[in-house]
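Please go through this protein, sequence plus structure tokens, and consider how the sequence yields the tokens. Keep your notes short.
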Amino acid sequence: EVAQLQLSAAEALVCALRIQTNGNILVLEGTQDSASNKRFWQEHGPRALGLVRASKLRLSSWRVAAAEMDAFLYANSAKGIVRQAFTGAGVEYLRLANYLVDHYKAHDSAVSLCYLGGFYAVAPWPLGNMPRGLADMMAALQIEPKSRRNNYYVCLLQYKNGDFSSAAASCKAALRANCIGSEKDYCDFLTDQVHRILYLASSAA
């Protein structure tokens, strides 16, 4: 069926985007909005989003919702997702993330909550809310404590919040955890970031 082919093509593009740009995960500096990443997102993100939204005319599943969230993130990261927090793109991002939370919360180790937590962690004031971001990451960790990504995000936000001893403990937990699901596409980069925050947190504690 055409819709299935469209969805599969969108998922393949999203996978390539994830691998090439380290999952666009949060880092200590906030985001990974480098010039090369933006070019790659601009080239492939809108294509992925167009394909998955075309498939939505006939399909409805966690695969569609997850691919749309990913594709939307990459397509809009090309323009600077943080700068768009106050625009319609920010509203749409939250709508898609909340839909995932409401319907497929546990999918991919509760990545839905990581999308929400990431938004509140990096959005400018007054939308930015670090305690809310950390709470969302903690909720994801509670659902899947074996996820390296979930442990890393807790570690990162604890560090940014100045709780260095807790951050160090969370980073150590992240190293004991595994890269699960889509995390495998950027596991090496993720692990490097865990080691980086662990060193900084241990030095500051």
